[in-house]
Structure formats: structure tokens, C-alpha cells
């Protein structure tokens, strides 16, 4: 969203963005892993030849050459003396030299010539540490044990010379060689100090402060020489040698960028030298961390290459280049950016200077000390006049003379945020309180309608017919000849939409940005809505801009940029060097370069890559049949991986040969790397595929292949001759076939009857059968198993997982162990377990199985039966319960046995403790018998007499 007031803009402009040693978006670093060996091997050296190709010395995979999209590898198989390479160098004649642990190699026009002690007696040994290319095709090499060897092709008889020998140098290894701008040859020897050759002879460098040991050499643009040994760096300029502050780790290479900055690579990663001479680590990203760098190269395109122990790292200049300050370090006012397709962009800095971009830098045009510009606008009718907006003032000045022509003050309550020039020359001030016209040194609120309220304007654009489209936070309007048309009256779907910006395209289309509804485009009387589902990265859009080439740019709120052209959406985020920040202003110059300002990150320029990618067909059929689909696989590579392979998109077509036309039949671009093709008619077809990169460059030479679509067999000449013979044979075979059919029908009926009988038998016996194929995992079972398990046989698909799910949870581990043992050891399982039906009912089953073993003795299938033994289990449980009850009853029975002492007179019984107890009490305690008291006739007669007895019996008779 735009700043809500000019005060906010002024604050943003006044923020000085302090320059750092390395811009956050200087390079985008990534592992270069094509071929994959570059990502797996230690890389010792990297150089660039005169054609711009990159050559890499690897430790174990020879030499790798990278040119655009072509990668070539040279190993012992191609003639290299060895694959363990220390260094590479490019000669003036185009040859590439490689020094390895096994000798020298010269690569020229794809051919490899090896030089070792075997074929070159002048070589003191095979271990080559460093190389230096000299004019006229000469090459010198630093050899182990203190030799510098010179190769001069102009002197065949003495092509190889011992240029510097141990007689002078000692046995120290020469680790680096350098030719300075004045022609002097320098040699760095481990523990042997520095040596130089002035054209006559070699001599040791005994200058005051010169290092006594060196492993590397470098000369910058100013002729300053750097020599280092481990973490110590010494610098030699017009004032002599100076020791720089020691680094935290050993240095292995120093390079200088086009703008004069020094970068050092070593065991602590990549470091950049700051203005004070100190070194600042360069962040290579989380994925790369801090690699051990052995060599550094900045190529002619300002790309950087790092030869690391962990592989090859490429640093590419991002598509978006950042500008935060002028050459003298003054911060730019990013909101004060203006440009057109025909005008280099202008910008103001915080000191009040007006600058124009010229040959890669901002050049001061004029200055107004003490003024901080929030907006700049060039008058189309007066190319030498520019409008500017500061806090509380709108002014017009002459770019050539720097003189003020007009100055109009305005109240802070207006809350201005932009300047807008009409085609009729009228200057407008856009604010959060309305749109104002600058007239006669003052401001007049538009439109000319006293009843029209001032609104919070978020965007203004003018169409070719002079009408003006105005956006508000709650609507959009079209002003034409004093008439105001509310667009939501014509398009109800725009009601309550929060508009953020508007842009009118050359074709008359009006594009609207919204704060949550995506984008709208108005073409005549048709309104189209675009959202994330259509290709936008976000529905919250801050700005919209239509560039000259037809591209529509959408600035999402903190989600980067999205562009649309020819139906293809492209997203730009921090991965392409763009900050996670809203865009404020857009302009373009020259064609293909887009400029934008951000609220907090400065100004960015997008320069589209103009070199197209290359497309390759990986696999394609030579022919396929009628009503079949052909499958084609393809891929692509962009120049130097400017667009990563995963971000390339492809379009293909499949047309009859001779019927293709330019632009006809191509599919929309997508990231799919496979095509399914088919044709309507038999014949020869042409398949073509083309890749496109993030800059919308399309491969002008699509990869293609011829594919033949074969006709159906009945349309070929070979079909008719055998057809007659086959017809006769068919007539004779029909009779036999009918008999076979009758026999098959009888067999089928018998088989169906047998199957039905078997199913009935299984249903009656509650016994089902199954078979499990271990190789395919396929499980088959009979309908009775479904009935046992309580499942619907019509809808249930037998699977091992489904079977195990039906097993009672407490028995699953046991069942799994039985079947695992059967599959691994071939032991036929036989066991009982419980199952749990879907309705919660528990059933008992018995599994009885056998195993099928192949010729290798491996179990390939298990088959068996499942019997429902639930009733048996229930009967068994009932029987066990009855037995348990009987045992319990028997245990409760009390018996009298043995000799029981009884009194002969009173009939009392003596118990085990010797006590005499009544007989009824003793019997009750030792049995379940109970006593009721009565009297027998004999005792009654004895006790009561016969008379009383008779009376008693008489009463009983009554």
C-alpha cells in the first residue's frame, strides 16, 4: 500500500541506507552440479578462456569444460595423464593446459596431449602445482621440488626448458605464478619467498617487508601486488610492502570485481574487503554454509565461481540489481523515481540532488540543497522541465539550468502522495483528501462539482480518450467531461472492493489492483477478474503497471512480483534477488529493462536475459499404433543456469509433416516434462518441443523428432492376402469351435453346479477356503469366509490388511506371527483365533493352511481353510461350566464315615475333641441333614401309657 501521507514518504526518503561490504543481492549462490561429479568432488581450480567458457580442475574426475549449455569432461579415458588435477590455465592460442599429480595435459579442439616423464624427459617430475599462460602460446608450470618449467612452441628443438631450477630456488615447491602488468614474472615458493623474472634473469625479491614464504599471488587494477601465506596477506604498492591484518583462516585466492572490490576465498569461505581494509564474510546461503574455497574467479559477466572442497559453487548476478546509494555513498530517495521507455530514469538523493542513470552509475544533473524529494515527474510536453514534490511544496524546475520555474505550497492536511500530469498539460496533486489541479499558484479540488466530496485516492490513470480513472479505498470511478461514473453501478461485483492502484494499457484495457480481491481488467463493457487460482501469487496487490512490451506487472504485498504476458504467468521473489517488499513506483528504460522503487530496500532494475534456453528430447517412440498414446520425455538447460532447470517451462506440438505452421498447435507453457501424444490419421508426424526461461526467452530451435503413426492392421496390404486363407480356415474352425463351445457350456454348467455344491457344503459346514499369493499380495477367499466374518461378499475386496483388521485386536499379534513364520520358514500354520464382526460380535475360527514353494525353495503362496468353531467353543465352554459346577457341588457334600462313639443310654456322640454332643447336632455339622422332633409309638407308650396313646390316636382319626 502507498504511504498514507507525504510526511511518511519524507521519512522513508531520509533513511540513509549505510553501504555494506557486500550487497545482500550481489550474487545468488548455488551448487553447480552438472555433471553431478562437480557436486561430489573437490575442485582445485577454475578459469575462464577467451571464448567465455569455464574450465574446472577436479580432484578425481579430470578437467570439466562448461560452455553455455554444453559440458565436456576430460579424464584418463580421453588421454589425460591422470584424473587428479591441481590447476588449469588458458593459453593465447585457445588451448587449455591442466597440471595434475601425474603430469601435464594440453586440450585443444577436443584432443588431449599428455606430457609425462615417460614421453617428456625434460619434466623433472610429474607433479604440477601451478600454471601461467604467457603471450605467443607459451606456458610455464610450477613443478614440485623447486622447478619452473617453460614451454615455447615457437622453438621445437628446445620447447621445454628448466626456467627456474632448484639450484636457485632450493627444493621448495612453486605454488603460484603471476605475470604483472609491467611484464614481470613472479613466482611464489613455499618457504622460498618471492622470485621475479624481469626478462633477463630470475632473482629473489629481497625488498623490505617482502614475505619470506608465499602460496599465492594477485595483482589488482591499480597494479598493487598481493602475496599471501596462510592467513597472512602482504600488499606491495608504490610505497613498498605492507602487511594486512591477518584473517581467521588460510587464504587460497583473491579476485577483484568490475567496481574495484576485492574478494578472498579460503578455508573460512568467501570474504569481501571493506572500505577500511577489513574483511567481511559473504553470506552464501544456508544450503552452502561456509565452504573451503581453493580458488575464486569473477568472469566477464560479473558472475563469480568458487572452487571448493565440497564442489563447484556458482554465483550469478540476480535478475534484479539493487541501487541504494550514489557512488559517493549518499542514500537515494527510492520513492522519487521517474523514467519512461525513451528516457533514462531519474532519482533524487537525500541531499537534494537530482540524478540520472548513465553507464551503470547515477550522474548528478542538478541539485537543490536542503530539499528532500518525495516524487519526480518529467513533463512530456517540456522534456527539459521536471516536476518535484517535497514536504509541503510542489515545484517545477529546469533540468538544464537547475532554475525553479514554479513553486506551489500546499497545506500538510492535504496529505499529498503523488503528482499526476494530464495529456492536456494540467498538473494534478494526488492526495488522501482528493485530486487537486495546480492553477495560478494554488490548488483547486476536482472534479468541478461543489457537491463532490474529497476522497482518499489510492491511484489515478488517464486513458487515451482523456478520461481519468480514479481509485479509492472503497470504489473506483471514471471521470469524463465533468461527468463522474461509479464503476460499481455498472459492475455490482465491484461494490465495497478495496482498490489500491489503476493502470491503463496502450490497447485501452484498464487494470485495477485490489487489497484482497486480486486484479480486475476492464475491456470495453467486459470486466474480468483474476485471482490466485488464475496465476497471481497473492490476491493482495499493492501496484499494477503495464509495460511497453505488453507485460502486466503486479506487486503483491510482501510476496514479490507477478507478471503476465501472452497468457503466461511468471513470479519473481527473493530467489531472483527481489526483496520481500512492496513496489512503490515503476518505470522502464531501455526496452526490456524495468525499474521499480521499494519502501525500504531502495531501487531495483530488472534486465531480462536475452539468450534463450536449449531444449532436448530425452526419450520418444519412433512409432506407435492406431488409437494408442505415445509418450515423449524432454528437458532443457538455460545459459549458465540463469533460470534453474526446475523453473524452465515447455510448450510442444504434434502435427502431420508438411501441415505445421508457425505458431500453430503449440500447447500452453507448463513445467511438465512429459507429453502424451496421439494422431487422428496414420502417417508421418513431427513432434516439437521448446523451452522458455523466466525472462520469457523461447528456444528458437525447438527439439524435434519424426514419429510414425501406424494404421490399423485391416488397412494394410499385408492384411488382404492372409485374410482369404484365414476365412477358409475360419469356416472349418467354426464347426469345431461350436462343438468346443457346447462342451465348454456343459463343463461350465457342471463347474457351476460343482461350485454351488461346494459353496452349499461350505455354508452347511461353516468352512471357507482362501489363497494368498505372496509375490503379488493378492488374497482370494470363498463366499463362506465373508459370511463367517459378517461381511458382504459383493462389496468386500479381500486384502491381507482387511483380514488382519477383522481379527480380534488381542489375537492380531499371534496371527501375524503365525503367517510370518509360514512365509519366511515354510511352516504350515494351524491355530485358532477370534474374529470381531462389524456388529461387535466375537466369533471363534480355526485356521488350517499349507504353503506353496517354488523351485528355489521360496514360499510363494499360502492356502488353507477357515472353520467357524464358535458353537463348538460355546459347547465346550458350557461343558466345562457344568463340570466345574459339579466339582463345586461335590466339594460341598459332607459325609459321615468311620467309627463314631455313641452313648448306649443317652445316645450322645463323642466328637474328635472328646466332647459329648447331642446326636442331632453332630449329624447336622457333618452332613446336610436337618432334624425335626417327633416321638415313636414305643416311646410314647412307655412315656404316656396306652390310654393316652389311644386318645391321641382317636383324635387323629377324627
Can you put this structure into words, describing what you see?
The protein is extended. It is built from eleven helices and 70 strands. The protein has a five-stranded antiparallel β-sheet. Strands 1-28-27-26 form a four-stranded antiparallel β-sheet. The longest helix is centred in the last third of the chain and has 49 residues, at 717-765. 16% of the residues lie in helices and 41% in strands. The protein has 958 residues and is of the alpha+beta class.
Could you outline the blueprint of secondary structure elements for this entry?
Layout: H1 6-14, E1 28-32, H2 37-40, E2 43-48, E3 54-58, E4 63-67, E5 70-74, E6 85-90, E7 96-100, E8 103-108, E9 111-115, E10 128-133, E11 139-143, E12 147-151, E13 160-164, H3 166-169, E14 174-179, E15 185-189, E16 193-197, E17 202-204, E18 216-219, E19 225-229, E20 232-237, E21 240-243, E22 251-256, E23 262-266, E24 269-273, E25 279-281, E26 293-298, E27 304-308, E28 311-316, E29 320-323, E30 332-340, E31 343-349, E32 353-358, E33 361-367, E34 375-378, E35 385-390, E36 393-398, E37 404-409, E38 416-421, E39 427-431, E40 434-439, E41 442-446, E42 457-462, E43 468-472, E44 475-480, E45 483-486, H4 487-490, E46 499-504, E47 510-514, E48 519-523, E49 526-530, E50 541-546, E51 552-556, E52 561-565, E53 568-572, E54 583-588, E55 593-598, E56 603-607, E57 614-619, E58 623-624, E59 630-637, E60 649-656, E61 674-677, E62 683-692, E63 703-709, H5 717-765, E64 767-773, E65 779-781, H6 783-789, H7 800-806, H8 812-825, E66 830-836, E67 842-853, E68 859-868, H9 870-892, E69 909-910, E70 916-917, H10 919-926, ...
Parallel strand pairs: 58-63
Antiparallel strand pairs: 1-28, 2-3, 3-4, 4-5, 6-7, 7-8, 8-9, 10-11, 11-12, 12-13, 14-15, 15-16, 16-17, 18-19, 19-20, 20-21, 22-23, 23-24, 24-25, 26-27, 27-28, 29-56, 30-31, 31-32, 32-33, 34-35, 35-36, 36-37, 38-39, 39-40, 40-41, 42-43, 43-44, 44-45, 46-47, 47-48, 48-49, 50-51, 51-52, 52-53, ...
Amino acid at each position: 500500500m502507498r504511504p498514507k501521507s507525504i510526511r511518511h514518504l519524507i521519512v522513508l526518503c531520509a533513511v540513509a541506507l549505510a553501504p555494506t561490504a557486500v550487497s545482500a543481492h550481489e550474487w545468488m549462490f548455488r551448487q553447480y552440479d552438472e555433471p553431478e561429479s562437480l557436486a561430489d568432488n573437490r575442485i582445485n581450480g577454475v578459469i575462464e578462456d577467451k571464448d567465455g567458457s569455464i574450465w574446472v580442475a577436479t580432484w578425481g574426475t579430470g578437467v570439466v569444460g562448461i560452455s553455455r549449455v554444453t559440458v565436456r569432461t576430460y579424464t584418463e579415458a580421453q588421454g589425460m595423464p591422470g584424473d587428479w588435477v591441481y590447476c588449469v590455465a588458458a593459453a593465447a592460442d585457445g588451448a587449455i593446459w591442466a597440471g595434475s599429480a601425474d603430469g601435464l595435459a594440453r586440450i585443444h579442439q577436443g584432443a588431449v596431449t599428455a606430457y609425462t616423464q615417460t614421453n617428456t624427459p625434460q619434466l623433472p617430475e610429474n607433479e604440477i602445482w601451478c600454471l601461467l599462460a604467457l603471450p605467443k602460446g607459451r606456458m610455464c608450470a610450477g613443478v614440485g621440488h623447486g622447478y619452473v618449467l617453460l614451454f615455447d612452441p615457437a622453438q621445437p628443438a628446445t620447447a621445454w626448458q628448466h626456467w627456474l631450477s632448484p639450484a636457485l630456488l632450493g627444493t621448495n615447491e612453486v605454488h603460484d605464478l603471476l605475470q604483472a602488468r609491467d611484464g614481470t614474472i613472479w613466482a611464489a615458493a613455499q618457504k622460498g619467498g618471492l622470485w621475479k623474472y624481469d626478462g633477463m634473469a630470475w632473482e629473489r625479491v629481497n625488498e623490505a617487508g617482502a614475505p619470506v614464504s608465499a602460496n599465492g599471488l594477485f595483482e589488482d587494477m591499480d597494479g598493487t601486488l598481493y602475496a599471501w601465506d596462510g592467513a597472512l596477506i602482504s600488499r606491495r604498492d608504490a610505497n613498498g610492502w605492507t602487511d594486512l591484518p591477518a584473517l581467521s583462516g588460510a587464504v587460497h585466492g583473491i579476485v577483484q570485481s568490475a567496481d574495484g572490490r576485492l574478494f578472498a576465498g579460503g578455508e573460512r569461505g568467501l570474504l569481501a574487503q571493506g572500505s577500511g581494509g577489513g574483511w567481511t564474510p559473504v553470506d552464501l546461503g544456508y544450503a552452502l554454509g561456509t565452504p573451503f574455497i581453493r580458488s575464486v574467479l569473477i568472469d566477464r559477466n560479473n558472475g563469480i565461481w568458487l572452487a571448493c572442497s565440497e564442489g563447484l559453487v556458482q554465483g550469478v548476478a540476480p535478475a534484479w540489481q539493487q541501487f541504494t546509494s550514489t557512488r559517493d555513498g549518499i542514500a537515494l530517495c527510492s520513492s522519487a523515481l521517474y523514467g519512461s521507455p525513451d528516457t533514462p530514469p531519474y532519482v533524487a538523493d537525500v541531499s537534494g540532488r537530482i540524478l540520472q542513470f548513465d553507464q551503470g552509475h547515477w550522474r548528478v544533473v542538478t541539485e537543490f540543497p536542503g530539499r528532500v524529494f518525495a516524487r519526480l515527474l518529467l513533463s512530456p510536453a517540456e522534456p527539459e522541465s521536471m516536476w518535484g514534490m517535497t514536504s509541503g511544496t510542489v515545484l517545477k524546475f529546469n533540468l538544464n539550468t537547475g532554475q525553479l520555474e514554479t513553486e506551489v505550497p500546499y497545506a500538510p492536511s492535504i496529505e499529498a502522495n503523488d503528482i499526476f500530469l494530464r495529456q492536456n498539460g494540467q498538473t494534478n496533486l494526488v492526495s488522501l483528501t482528493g485530486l487537486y489541479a495546480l492553477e495560478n499558484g494554488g490548488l483547486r479540488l476536482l472534479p468541478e462539482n461543489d457537491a463532490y466530496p474529497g476522497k482518499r485516492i489510492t491511484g489515478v490513470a488517464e486513458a487515451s480518450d482523456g478520461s481519468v480513472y480514479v481509485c479509492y479505498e472503497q470504489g473506483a470511478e471514471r471521470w469524463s467531461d465533468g461527468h463522474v461514473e461509479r464503476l460499481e453501478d455498472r459492475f455490482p461485483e465491484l461494490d465495497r472492493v478495496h482498490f489500491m492502484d489503476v493502470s491503463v494499457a496502450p490497447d485501452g484495457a484498464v487494470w485495477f489492483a485490489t487489497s484482497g480481491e486480486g486484479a480486475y481488467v476492464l475491456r470495453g463493457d467486459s470486466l474480468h477478474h483474476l485471482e490466485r487460482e488464475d496465476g497471481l501469487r497473492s490476491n493482495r496487490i499493492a501496484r499494477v503497471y503495464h509495460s511497453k512490451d505488453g507485460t502486466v506487472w503486479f506487486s503483491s504485498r510482501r510476496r514479490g512480483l507477478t507478471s503476465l504476458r501472452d497468457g503466461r504467468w511468471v513470479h519473481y521473489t527473493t530467489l531472483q534477488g527481489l526483496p520481500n517488499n512492496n513496489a512503490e513506483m515503476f518505470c522502464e528504460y531501455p526496452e526490456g529493462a524495468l525499474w521499480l522503487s521499494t519502501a525500504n530496500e531502495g531501487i531495483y532494475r530488472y534486465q531480462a536475459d536475452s539468450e534463450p534456453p536449449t531444449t532436448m528430447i530425452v526419450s520418444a517412440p519412433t512409432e506407435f499404433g492406431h488409437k494408442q498414446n505415445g509418450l515423449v520425455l524432454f528437458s532443457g538447460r538455460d545459459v549458465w543456469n540463469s533460470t534453474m532447470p526446475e523453473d524452465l517451462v515447455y510448450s510442444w506440438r504434434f502435427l502431420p509433416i508438411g501441415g505445421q505452421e508457425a505458431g500453430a498447435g503449440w500447447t500452453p507453457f507448463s513445467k511438465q516434462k512429459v507429453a502424451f501424444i496421439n494422431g487422428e490419421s496414420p502417417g508421418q508426424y513431427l513432434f516439437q518441443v521448446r523451452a522458455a526461461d523466466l525472462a520469457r526467452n523461447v528456444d528458437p530451435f525447438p527439439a524435434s523428432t519424426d514419429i510414425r503413426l501406424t494404421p490399423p492392421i485391416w488397412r494394410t496390404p499385408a492384411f488382404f492376402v492372409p485374410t482369404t486363407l484365414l476365412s477358409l480356415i475360419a469356416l472349418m474352425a467354426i464347426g469345431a469351435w461350436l462343438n468346443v463351445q457346447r462342451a465348454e457350456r456343459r463343463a461350465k454348467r457342471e463347474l457351476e453346479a460343482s461350485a454351488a455344491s461346494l459353496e452349499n457344503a461350505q455354508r452347511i459346514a461353516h468352512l471357507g477356503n482362501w489363497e494368498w499369493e505372496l509375490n503379488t499380495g493378492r488374497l482370494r477367499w470363498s463366499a463362506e469366509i465373508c459370511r463367517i466374518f459378517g461381511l458382504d461378499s459383493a462389496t468386500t475386496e479381500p486384502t491381507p490388511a482387511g483380514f488382519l483388521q477383522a481379527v480380534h485386536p488381542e489375537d492380531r499379534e499371534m496371527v501375524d506371527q503365525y503367517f510370518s513364520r509360514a512365509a519366511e520358514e515354510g511352516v504350515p500354520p494351524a491355530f485358532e483365533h477370534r474374529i470381531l464382526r462389524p456388529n461387535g460380535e466375537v466369533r471363534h475360527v480355526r485356521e488350517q493352511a499349507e504353503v506353496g514353494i517354488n523351485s528355489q525353495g521360496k514360499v510363494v503362496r499360502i492356502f488353507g481353510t477357515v472353520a467357524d468353531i464358535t458353537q463348538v467353543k460355546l459347547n465346550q465352554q458350557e461343558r466345562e461350566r457344568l463340570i466345574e459346577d459339579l466339582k463345586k457341588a461335590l466339594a460341598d457334600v459332607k459325609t459321615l464315615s468311620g467309627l463314631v462313639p455313641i452313648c448306649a443310654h443317652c445316645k450322645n456322640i463323642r466328637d474328635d475333641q472328646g466332647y459329648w454332643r447331642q446326636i442331632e447336632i453332630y449329624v447336622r455339622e457333618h452332613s446336610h441333614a436337618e432334624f425335626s422332633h417327633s416321638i415313636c409309638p414305643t416311646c410314647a407308650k412307655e412315656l404316656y401309657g396306652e390310654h393316652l396313646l389311644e386318645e391321641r390316636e382317636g383324635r387323629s382319626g377324627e
